Amino acid sequence: MTRLLEGRACLVSGVGAGTGRAVALAFAREGADLVLACRTERVAQEIAKEVEEAGARAVPVAADITKSEDREKLVTAAGSAFGGIDVLVNNAFATGRAGPIESIDLAKTWRTPFEVNVFGTLLMAQAVIPSMKQRGGGSIVMIGTMAARRPEAGLAGYGASKAALLAATQSFASELGRHKIRVNCVVPGAIDGANLRVLFKNEAARLGQSEDDVVQRFASRAPLHHIATPDEVAAAVLFFASGMSSAITGQSLDVNCGEWFG
After folding, report:
1. Residues annotated as catalytic (active site), given as ranges
2. pTM for the structure as a whole
3. Could you point out which of 152, 177, 183, 186 has its C-alpha 20 to 30 Å from the C-alpha of 254?
Protein backbone atom coordinates (compact mmCIF):
# COMPACT_ATOMS: atom_id res chain seq x y z
CA MET A 1 0.00 0.00 0.00
CA THR A 2 1.31 3.45 -0.91
CA ARG A 3 2.33 5.50 2.09
CA LEU A 4 0.74 8.93 2.63
CA LEU A 5 3.86 10.99 1.90
CA GLU A 6 5.67 8.64 -0.47
CA GLY A 7 8.18 10.64 -2.53
CA ARG A 8 7.21 13.96 -0.92
CA ALA A 9 9.96 16.38 0.12
CA CYS A 10 9.09 17.88 3.51
CA LEU A 11 10.75 20.66 5.48
CA VAL A 12 10.09 20.67 9.23
CA SER A 13 11.34 23.54 11.39
CA GLY A 14 11.84 23.29 15.14
CA VAL A 15 12.58 19.56 15.15
CA GLY A 16 13.81 19.34 18.73
CA ALA A 17 12.29 17.02 21.32
CA GLY A 18 8.51 16.93 21.45
CA THR A 19 6.19 17.80 18.60
CA GLY A 20 8.91 18.53 16.03
CA ARG A 21 10.52 15.13 16.56
CA ALA A 22 7.14 13.38 16.51
CA VAL A 23 6.21 15.07 13.22
CA ALA A 24 9.54 14.13 11.63
CA LEU A 25 9.17 10.47 12.64
CA ALA A 26 5.51 10.31 11.58
CA PHE A 27 6.45 11.71 8.18
CA ALA A 28 9.37 9.29 7.89
CA ARG A 29 7.07 6.31 8.51
CA GLU A 30 4.83 7.59 5.71
CA GLY A 31 7.66 7.72 3.16
CA ALA A 32 8.68 11.39 3.22
CA ASP A 33 12.11 12.79 2.42
CA LEU A 34 12.97 15.28 5.14
CA VAL A 35 14.91 18.48 5.65
CA LEU A 36 15.13 18.95 9.42
CA ALA A 37 15.70 22.47 10.75
CA CYS A 38 16.82 23.26 14.28
CA ARG A 39 18.91 26.04 15.76
CA THR A 40 21.14 23.42 17.41
CA GLU A 41 23.07 21.33 14.88
CA ARG A 42 23.56 18.43 17.30
CA VAL A 43 19.81 18.09 17.86
CA ALA A 44 19.06 18.22 14.14
CA GLN A 45 21.59 15.46 13.54
CA GLU A 46 20.15 13.31 16.32
CA ILE A 47 16.63 13.55 14.88
CA ALA A 48 18.01 12.88 11.38
CA LYS A 49 19.57 9.67 12.66
CA GLU A 50 16.21 8.54 14.05
CA VAL A 51 14.50 9.41 10.77
CA GLU A 52 17.05 7.39 8.80
CA GLU A 53 16.59 4.46 11.16
CA ALA A 54 12.88 4.66 10.30
CA GLY A 55 13.82 4.15 6.65
CA ALA A 56 13.62 7.71 5.32
CA ARG A 57 16.16 10.15 3.89
CA ALA A 58 17.02 13.13 6.07
CA VAL A 59 19.10 16.30 5.73
CA PRO A 60 19.76 18.04 9.08
CA VAL A 61 20.33 21.79 8.90
CA ALA A 62 21.23 24.17 11.72
CA ALA A 63 19.03 27.18 11.02
CA ASP A 64 17.19 30.10 12.61
CA ILE A 65 14.04 30.90 10.63
CA THR A 66 14.26 34.59 11.58
CA LYS A 67 17.43 34.92 9.47
CA SER A 68 17.07 35.32 5.70
CA GLU A 69 20.34 33.51 4.98
CA ASP A 70 19.17 30.50 7.02
CA ARG A 71 15.79 30.38 5.29
CA GLU A 72 17.61 30.41 1.95
CA LYS A 73 19.93 27.68 3.22
CA LEU A 74 16.95 25.46 4.04
CA VAL A 75 15.28 25.93 0.67
CA THR A 76 18.59 25.31 -1.11
CA ALA A 77 19.19 22.14 0.94
CA ALA A 78 15.79 20.78 -0.03
CA GLY A 79 16.36 21.62 -3.68
CA SER A 80 19.80 20.01 -3.77
CA ALA A 81 18.76 16.85 -1.95
CA PHE A 82 15.21 16.29 -3.15
CA GLY A 83 14.55 18.66 -6.05
CA GLY A 84 12.28 21.03 -4.13
CA ILE A 85 9.68 21.20 -1.36
CA ASP A 86 6.19 19.72 -1.26
CA VAL A 87 5.37 20.23 2.42
CA LEU A 88 6.43 22.83 5.00
CA VAL A 89 5.69 22.36 8.69
CA ASN A 90 6.29 25.60 10.58
CA ASN A 91 6.90 24.22 14.06
CA ALA A 92 9.64 26.61 15.29
CA PHE A 93 8.29 28.94 17.97
CA ALA A 94 9.19 31.21 20.88
CA THR A 95 7.11 31.90 23.99
CA GLY A 96 8.95 35.04 25.07
CA ARG A 97 9.32 36.29 28.63
CA ALA A 98 6.33 35.92 30.91
CA GLY A 99 4.89 38.75 32.94
CA PRO A 100 1.73 40.79 33.68
CA ILE A 101 0.63 43.23 30.99
CA GLU A 102 0.39 46.17 33.40
CA SER A 103 4.09 46.07 34.30
CA ILE A 104 6.09 44.39 31.54
CA ASP A 105 7.84 46.26 28.74
CA LEU A 106 5.65 45.23 25.79
CA ALA A 107 8.17 46.44 23.21
CA LYS A 108 10.75 44.03 24.61
CA THR A 109 8.78 41.03 25.83
CA TRP A 110 6.48 40.77 22.81
CA ARG A 111 9.21 41.27 20.22
CA THR A 112 10.70 37.75 20.34
CA PRO A 113 7.45 35.78 19.95
CA PHE A 114 6.33 38.03 17.12
CA GLU A 115 9.71 37.81 15.38
CA VAL A 116 9.64 34.00 15.46
CA ASN A 117 5.96 33.04 15.51
CA VAL A 118 4.76 35.60 12.97
CA PHE A 119 7.52 37.14 10.86
CA GLY A 120 9.97 34.23 10.86
CA THR A 121 7.20 31.70 10.28
CA LEU A 122 5.52 33.64 7.48
CA LEU A 123 8.82 34.47 5.79
CA MET A 124 9.66 30.76 5.87
CA ALA A 125 6.33 30.04 4.22
CA GLN A 126 6.99 32.74 1.65
CA ALA A 127 10.40 31.23 0.91
CA VAL A 128 8.97 27.85 -0.14
CA ILE A 129 6.28 29.21 -2.46
CA PRO A 130 8.42 29.27 -5.64
CA SER A 131 9.39 25.62 -5.18
CA MET A 132 5.81 24.55 -4.47
CA LYS A 133 4.53 26.43 -7.52
CA GLN A 134 7.15 24.74 -9.67
CA ARG A 135 6.07 21.33 -8.36
CA GLY A 136 2.39 22.02 -9.03
CA GLY A 137 1.27 22.68 -5.46
CA GLY A 138 2.01 21.83 -1.87
CA SER A 139 0.93 22.02 1.74
CA ILE A 140 1.99 24.48 4.42
CA VAL A 141 1.10 23.53 7.99
CA MET A 142 1.37 26.15 10.71
CA ILE A 143 1.51 25.13 14.37
CA GLY A 144 -0.59 27.30 16.66
CA THR A 145 -1.55 27.10 20.32
CA MET A 146 -4.70 27.09 22.42
CA ALA A 147 -3.29 30.22 24.11
CA ALA A 148 -4.46 32.05 20.99
CA ARG A 149 -8.02 30.88 21.71
CA ARG A 150 -7.97 31.20 25.48
CA PRO A 151 -5.32 33.68 26.69
CA GLU A 152 -3.07 32.61 29.55
CA ALA A 153 -2.04 35.13 32.19
CA GLY A 154 1.56 36.19 31.74
CA LEU A 155 1.84 34.85 28.18
CA ALA A 156 -0.04 37.57 26.33
CA GLY A 157 2.72 38.09 23.76
CA TYR A 158 2.86 34.40 22.90
CA GLY A 159 -0.92 34.10 22.57
CA ALA A 160 -1.20 37.31 20.54
CA SER A 161 1.52 36.22 18.13
CA LYS A 162 -0.14 32.86 17.53
CA ALA A 163 -3.54 34.55 17.08
CA ALA A 164 -1.92 36.69 14.38
CA LEU A 165 -0.58 33.50 12.79
CA LEU A 166 -4.10 32.03 12.68
CA ALA A 167 -5.35 35.08 10.78
CA ALA A 168 -2.34 35.03 8.45
CA THR A 169 -2.94 31.34 7.72
CA GLN A 170 -6.29 32.23 6.16
CA SER A 171 -4.78 35.09 4.16
CA PHE A 172 -2.04 32.83 2.77
CA ALA A 173 -4.60 30.13 1.98
CA SER A 174 -6.81 32.61 0.13
CA GLU A 175 -3.99 33.90 -2.06
CA LEU A 176 -2.14 30.64 -2.69
CA GLY A 177 -5.09 28.41 -3.48
CA ARG A 178 -4.91 29.16 -7.20
CA HIS A 179 -1.44 27.61 -7.18
CA LYS A 180 -2.76 24.44 -5.49
CA ILE A 181 -0.88 25.36 -2.31
CA ARG A 182 -2.93 24.59 0.78
CA VAL A 183 -2.29 26.42 4.07
CA ASN A 184 -3.75 25.14 7.34
CA CYS A 185 -2.99 25.29 11.06
CA VAL A 186 -2.89 22.67 13.82
CA VAL A 187 -3.73 24.20 17.21
CA PRO A 188 -2.57 22.04 20.14
CA GLY A 189 -3.58 22.48 23.74
CA ALA A 190 -1.34 21.12 26.48
CA ILE A 191 1.09 18.50 25.17
CA ASP A 192 2.25 15.70 27.43
CA GLY A 193 6.03 15.92 27.40
CA ALA A 194 9.12 16.63 29.47
CA ASN A 195 8.30 20.29 30.21
CA LEU A 196 4.77 19.56 31.36
CA ARG A 197 5.96 16.66 33.49
CA VAL A 198 8.37 18.99 35.31
CA LEU A 199 5.42 21.26 36.14
CA PHE A 200 3.42 18.29 37.40
CA LYS A 201 6.33 17.15 39.57
CA ASN A 202 6.77 20.62 41.09
CA GLU A 203 3.04 21.00 41.70
CA ALA A 204 2.88 17.59 43.38
CA ALA A 205 5.73 18.56 45.70
CA ARG A 206 4.10 21.90 46.52
CA LEU A 207 0.75 20.30 47.39
CA GLY A 208 2.15 17.19 49.03
CA GLN A 209 0.29 14.98 46.57
CA SER A 210 1.31 12.22 44.21
CA GLU A 211 2.28 13.19 40.69
CA ASP A 212 -0.39 10.84 39.33
CA ASP A 213 -3.06 12.75 41.26
CA VAL A 214 -1.85 16.05 39.81
CA VAL A 215 -1.81 14.61 36.29
CA GLN A 216 -5.32 13.20 36.63
CA ARG A 217 -6.69 16.49 37.96
CA PHE A 218 -5.10 18.37 35.07
CA ALA A 219 -6.36 15.87 32.49
CA SER A 220 -9.90 15.98 33.93
CA ARG A 221 -10.29 19.55 32.65
CA ALA A 222 -10.91 18.10 29.19
CA PRO A 223 -13.92 15.94 28.26
CA LEU A 224 -11.62 13.11 27.14
CA HIS A 225 -9.77 13.17 30.50
CA HIS A 226 -6.56 12.89 28.54
CA ILE A 227 -3.55 15.05 27.68
CA ALA A 228 -2.59 14.98 24.01
CA THR A 229 0.78 13.40 23.23
CA PRO A 230 3.27 14.69 20.64
CA ASP A 231 2.35 11.71 18.44
CA GLU A 232 -1.31 12.70 18.52
CA VAL A 233 -0.48 16.25 17.49
CA ALA A 234 1.78 14.87 14.76
CA ALA A 235 -1.15 12.82 13.41
CA ALA A 236 -3.13 16.02 12.86
CA VAL A 237 -0.14 17.59 11.10
CA LEU A 238 0.15 14.51 8.88
CA PHE A 239 -3.51 14.87 7.94
CA PHE A 240 -2.98 18.40 6.65
CA ALA A 241 0.32 17.49 4.97
CA SER A 242 -1.09 14.53 3.07
CA GLY A 243 -3.67 14.01 0.34
CA MET A 244 -6.25 13.14 3.00
CA SER A 245 -6.95 16.88 3.25
CA SER A 246 -6.69 17.63 -0.48
CA ALA A 247 -9.85 19.79 -0.47
CA ILE A 248 -9.09 21.62 2.79
CA THR A 249 -7.34 24.98 3.12
CA GLY A 250 -7.50 27.99 5.41
CA GLN A 251 -8.64 25.82 8.33
CA SER A 252 -7.46 25.19 11.87
CA LEU A 253 -7.69 21.87 13.69
CA ASP A 254 -7.69 21.97 17.48
CA VAL A 255 -5.99 19.07 19.26
CA ASN A 256 -6.82 19.57 22.94
CA CYS A 257 -8.96 16.59 23.99
CA GLY A 258 -12.02 18.83 24.00
CA GLU A 259 -10.72 21.31 26.58
CA TRP A 260 -11.62 24.14 24.23
CA PHE A 261 -14.26 24.05 21.51
CA GLY A 262 -13.15 26.60 18.90
Report:
1. 158
2. 0.95
3. 177
- The full 3-state SS of the chain, as one line of letters, equals CCCCCCCCEEEEECCCCCHHHHHHHHHHHCCCEEEEEECCHHHHHHHHHHHHHCCCCEEEEECCCCCHHHHHHHHHHHHHHHCCCCEEEECCCCCCCCCCCCCCCHHHHCHHHHHHHHHHHHHHHHHHHHHHHHCCCEEEEEECCHHHCCCCCCCHHHHHHHHHHHHHHHHHHHHHHHHCEEEEEEEECCECCHHHHHHHHHHHHHHCCCHHHHHHHHHCCCCCCCCECHHHHHHHHHHHHCHHHCCCCCCEEEECCCCCCC
Q: What's the chain's average pLDDT?
A: 94
